[in-house]
């Protein structure tokens, strides 16, 4: 169920990457740790170094549906970038995870101060959002539609 989203290396120039990474601090999460829940305030994001994180979507009357698994190099969290800064999905560490963590307010401020950096980050985050939307659609069709998505992407 892991899909490939645009990596930081592919999305940002070396200068913009260095600028963003200067704001990172390393964190670790045990398997089973809930990183965030839908509807809560999105005040940070991560780039996964090791481990796997499951993204899930609340489905009324059912267990949350895992729609995608993220791993090395993936951006975890995009809701921090768009008002009202509330998580659109939930996330849980499926295995022990090590990641670079970023404070959303600090990164948004830097984006406002440097329009070229801000545009590069916005394009990267937008590409990730588009990919996640597609993954959610395919997964929900596979789970709940009578004939699945027809995508051939067995999850």
From TrEMBL:
Entries under PROSITE patterns matching the protein: CNMP_BINDING_3
UniProt protein name: Cyclic nucleotide-binding domain-containing protein
InterPro entries: cNMP-bd_dom, cNMP-bd_dom_sf, RmlC-like_jellyroll
SUPFAM superfamilies reported for this sequence: cAMP-binding domain-like (SSF51206)
Domain Cyclic nucleotide-binding stretches: 8-77
């Amino acid at each position: 169920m892991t899909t490939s989203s645009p990596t930081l290396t592919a999305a940002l120039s070396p200068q913009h990457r260095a600028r963003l990474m200067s704001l990172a601090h390393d964190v670790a999460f045990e398997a089973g740790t809930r990183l965030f829940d839908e509807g809560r305030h999105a005040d940070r994001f991560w780039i996964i170094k090791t481990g796997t994180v499951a993204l899930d979507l609340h489905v009324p009357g059912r267990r949350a549906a895992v729609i995608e698994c993220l791993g090395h190099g993936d951006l975890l969290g995009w809701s921090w970038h768009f008002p009202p800064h509330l998580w659109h999905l939930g996330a849980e560490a499926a295995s022990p995870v090590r990641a670079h963590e970023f404070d959303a307010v600090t990164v948004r401020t830097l984006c406002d101060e440097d329009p070229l950096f801000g545009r590069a980050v916005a394009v990267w985050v937008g590409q990730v959002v588009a990919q996640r939307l597609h993954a959610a659609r395919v997964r929900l069709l596979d789970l709940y539609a009578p004939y699945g998505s027809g995508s051939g992407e067995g999850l």
